[in-house]
Structure formats: structure tokens, C-alpha cells
Design a protein that fits this description.
Transcription Regulator spoIIAA, 5-stranded mixed sheet, 99 residues, alpha/beta, 3 helices
């Protein structure tokens, strides 16, 4: 998995390339933790993510909880496999999801 981050003001853009599973989730979590200071919004680009496990979902949940009350976490470009996982787990109610 590769993580490409770009900070624009208080918005963090995160492009993920590869699957987010129990092996790669700790890497993603560490990468996010080093970049969250002053961030009020995170935008994940899942265009190149084919699968996310419960460990990856946990990283997203930690990111949501790290945002201030008026902040948000958005996932865009998720494929149908990832969307099925978000739907089955209720993450469609936790994340802002865009095409």
C-alpha cells in the first residue's frame, strides 16, 4: 500500500494505492497520525483501493473521532466492493461518501 498526502490549509487529502488490511492499516494509521495537527477535514481518495478490512475501518473511525465537531471525513471514488463493505458495516452513516 502507498499513501500520498497533501495538506491544503486545514484539509488533508489522502490518496491510497492498494488494499487496506490488517498488514497495511497500521502504516496508514501512523501516516495519518503524523499529519493531523491542525486538520479539520480529511478527504480520502479510494480510486485505487479494492478492499478494506475491519482494521482499515478502524483507522477511518479513529480519523473521524480525531476531527473537531465541525470537521469531516470524506471518502471519494470508492468502488462497489468497498461500498458494499461500508454499507454492511454502517460506515455509510459515519463517513461522507462521494462518487
Amino acid at each position: 500500500m502507498n499513501v500520498i498526502k497533501r495538506l491544503e490549509g486545514s484539509e488533508l487529502f489522502v490518496e491510497i494505492i492498494g488494499n487496506i488490511d490488517s498488514v497495511t492499516a497500521p502504516e496508514l494509521n501512523a501516516s495519518l497520525n503524523e499529519s493531523l495537527k491542525g486538520v479539520t477535514s480529511i478527504r480520502f481518495d479510494f480510486k485505487q483501493v479494492d478492499y478494506i478490512s475491519s482494521a482499515g475501518l478502524r483507522v477511518l473511525l479513529v480519523a473521524v473521532k480525531a476531527m473537531p465537531k465541525d470537521g469531516n471525513v470524506t471518502v471519494c471514488n470508492a468502488n462497489s466492493n468497498v461500498m458494499d463493505i461500508f454499507t454492511m458495516t454502517g460506515f455509510v452513516n459515519i463517513l461522507n461518501i462521494e462518487d
